[in-house]
Amino acid sequence: MSVLSKPYFHDEAAAFAFVEGIIWNGSPHCPTCGSVKIYAIKPNPEKKVRMGLKKCGDCKRQFTVRIGTIFEESHLPLHKWLQAIYLMCSSKKGISAKQLERTLECTYKTAWFLAHRIREAMRSGDLSPFGNDGGVVEADETFFGREPGKPVQRGVAHKMKVLTLIDRETGRARSCVIDDLKTETIGPIVLANVQREAALMTDEAHRFQSIGRHFASHDTVNHAKDEYVRYGDPVITTNTVENYFSVFKRGMKGTYQHCAKKHLHRYLAEFDFRYSNRSALGCEDQERTVRALVGIIGKRLTYRSANGRIEAHG
Questions:
Q1: Which residues are paired to 49 by β-bridges?
Q2: Any residues with CB less than 8 A from the CB of 233 and at least 6 apart, and which?
Q3: Whole-model pTM?
Q4: What are phi and psi of 164, to 5 degrees?
Q5: φ and ψ at 165, to 5 degrees?
Q6: What's the CA gap between 48 and 131, in Å, rounded?
Q7: 282: buried, middle or exposed (CB in 10 Å: 19+, 13-18, 0-12)?
Q8: Sign of CA pseudo-dihedral 74, 79, 83, 89
Q9: For residue 256, how many C-alpha atoms fall within 13 Å in the half-sphere facing its CB?
């Protein structure tokens, strides 16, 4: 049976029950006062009583599981939200807002906005450094699109720049947008996200030389001489992070095609999430969707903060 045939992808009551099971785990509580004295209000379409509505026995406020999550104040049915989350979690190179528009039968603006809110849910709050117990961490940069206001020229000076770290032991990825390739820009990021006892792997770029001195070891491969794996020592390579970039580039160029710099960090969160929860680590599509749902709490994103323009609801 196809995963998309599950009741919570098509039935609103089942969708609320599914999300409530993940968020509340059988113990609903009031988002205002924290009380667990909660009463369910039976939905009544004639009186416009909402599905999944609850009432607090102490403060008397009404609420649903949407409150305090990326679903808050959204008019899109919850079962369609779950379809969108599953599609974004199961599409290795992403799914465009236009495709979501066609699949969910909603407007393009709604599809674009909900995709950004889902990316916000995918953003990891884990800031623990990589490379525990002397593990190997790979670091590299890649380039995409064009920096705002910069004319196209030879080289990469006009392109947007991304720094990615890969922890080989855990299989996790962590990426960020950087403004330049200077050591004083990249250094603090690497030092804050990698344990000092880690083994750092980079390419031959000079900016990594002074950074590498802070770690237990620092080995490089010389891409300029077509060296991608150290002869006689296959541990010394940056092929893992290069593989991450190959998926990221194919997704950004083939699926999304264009991305403004102000939104790039959210696309990186999406690719980091799928990479860090991929099948090779034992996480399949359905479990990946559940992990994304766990991240919806406290990450409400408004249209103004996402787009920098007028306020609207998805």
A1: 44
A2: none
A3: 0.91
A4: -130, 140
A5: -115, 135
A6: 53
A7: exposed
A8: positive
A9: 26
Query: What's the rounded Cα separation, in Å, for the pair 256 and 118?
Result: 15
C-alpha pair distances (Å), 40 with each of 12, 29, 46, 64: 16, 12, 18, 10
Kind plus residue range of the DSSP H or E element containing 167: strand 160-167
CATH code of the domain made up of 132-259? 3.30.420.10
Q: What is the chain's pLDDT, residue by residue, as a tens digit (314 residues)?
A: 566 678 999 999 999 999 999 999 888 999 899 899 999 888 776 666 678 899 999 999 999 999 989 998 888 999 999 999 999 999 999 999 999 999 999 999 999 999 999 999 999 878 899 999 999 999 999 999 999 888 888 888 899 999 999 999 999 999 999 999 999 999 999 999 999 999 999 999 999 999 999 999 999 999 888 899 988 899 999 999 999 999 999 999 999 988 999 999 999 999 999 999 999 999 999 999 999 999 998 777 766 666 665 443 33
User: Quick check: 190 and 174 in contact, CB under 8 A?
Assistant: no
